[in-house]
Design brief:
The chain is mostly helical and 280 residues long. It is built from 14 helices and two strands.
């Protein structure tokens, strides 16, 4: 165990390993962020199993279970890369959630209000970003694949996490996006870009969405880009009831991931229980 100290050089090697493993940029960023947090906790100390267990306890005291497991997965990946297999720790067992807390579920009505407020604030780009994510189910990182060419043919080819899939763009969204591109004199390439022609960043989208909350009367805790993807999933499933097809549309390799997206709200879950009429 002696000499097991995490250094900047190890981080560089780990990043190179993740790149060669063809992990997405977002995944690499997250893994490195999680590892840096662990290094800060270790504060130069030798990495022992006791230290890692102590870090796990620290995370449990400060984060939700899913977040803890996600951060543990990052440092376990580092240990596997370094061959420090005996330092890996177990994730926390979590019972599958059967309903989504109301305070976290963005409703269709709230989504509509957010779009309308964006329009009133003359932020057409943001309104269309919301509609594009919610109307196609793509990730915010996949907005770069919404190009003039893709919109014209009504289908975008999206590459993410070493997988490629086709994303259909409905006619009404096609019309809106092409009109916006024409207004912005965007004749080719990405539609959602900054004034300098770079892709709109996730951070900017998040910040602009939060600025809509008060006027739209929506809880800020519900308002972030990925929740639009969840809304798409719930609406699609309520109509089609085809989880396998939804998994393909969302680009999920594991259908259990898709199942998380379509859990009903606590209110809906409670209503269904009331309708069982099992209390005499």
């Amino acid at each position: 165990m002696k000499g097991r100290i995490l250094t900047a050089k190890i981080l560089v090697r780990f990043k190179k390993y993740l790149l060669l493993e063809e992990r997405s940029a977002a995944t690499i960023e997250k893994y490195l962020r999680d590892v840096r947090a662990f290094i800060a906790f270790a504060n130069g100390a030798e990495i022992t199993k006791e230290l890692v267990i102590g870090y796990k306890k620290h995370l449990q005291e400060n984060y939700a279970v899913r977040s803890v497991n996600s951060m543990l997965a990052s440092i376990n990946s580092l240990f596997a890369f370094l061959g420090w297999l005996e330092l890996r720790v177990k994730s926390i067992k979590l019972q599958q959630q059967i309903y989504c807390p109301e305070e976290k579920e963005l409703t269709k009505a709230e989504y509509v209000r957010l779009c309308k407020v964006a329009e009133r604030k003359h932020n057409k780009r943001l309104s269309l970003i919301l509609q594009t994510i919610c109307g196609t189910g793509i990730r915010v990182s996949e907005l770069q694949f919404i190009t003039v060419e893709a919109v014209r043919c009504g289908e975008a080819t999206v590459s993410c996490k070493a997988k490629t899939r086709s994303v259909f763009i409905v006619k009404e969204l096609q019309r809106k996006l092409l009109r916006y591109a024409a207004e912005q004199t965007i004749k080719t390439g990405m539609i959602f870009v900054t004034k300098t022609g770079k892709p709109v960043s996730r951070t900017n989208i998040w910040r602009e969405m939060k600025a809509l909350c008060e006027e739209a009367n929506v809880n800020p805790r519900k308002v972030f880009p990925h929740n639009l993807r969840h809304l798409f999933a719930r609406v699609f499933y309520s109509i089609e009831k085809d989880m396998a097809k939804l998994a393909d549309i969302l680009g999920h390799s594991n259908i259990d991931t898709t199942r998380i997206y379509i859990i009903s709200s606590g209110t809906e879950h409670r209503r269904r229980m009331e309708n069982m009429h099992l209390i005499l």
